[in-house]
Amino acid sequence: MQRDMVWSSLLALLLATDAVRADANRVTLPDYRSGFAHYVENLERADPEQISEIWANRTALESAAGGAPLAYGSVLVMEVWKAKMTEGGEEPERDAAGRPVKDRLLFVAVMEKQPGWGGIYPEEERSGEWEFAAYTPDGEFKEMDYGAKCSYCHAPLGEQDYVQSWEALLAAAE
Length: 174
Known about the structure:
This protein is α+β, with helices and mostly antiparallel strands. Helix content is 27%, strand content 24%. The chain is built from four helices and five strands. The radius of gyration is 19 Å and the shape is globular.
């Protein structure tokens, strides 16, 4: 009898913990390689050892066409790659077009916009109704402070719906 109560309590605790994690990780890794528009290629990041590739789902692309804030259901996915470095390791190797050469995939970042989202971040780190997640190259969720790492950098971009690649997205939507 007591053992059943312990197991019931443990099960309730596990279910409650899973519910909290699911709420904190609402942004899932979509199958972005099929059905999403690849609108940024070989973007040099502030860290010269990193390169980004960015995709947008149909909802984001269609709503960007008018230049208005993106519609709910918009999803943007960014692959972050380690750049292949020159022999001295001081700068990225470049291809014939002058673009940095990708070495290996570091992680995949995802941002999604839904009604009422964004409230899980502190007020000063919110980016409207966007939430963020990152995944390993194997598709495993990466635990980190998404408010400080993602939302905080996007927060100053309210005039472009908190999207870093706004101009490229508008161009792709045309």
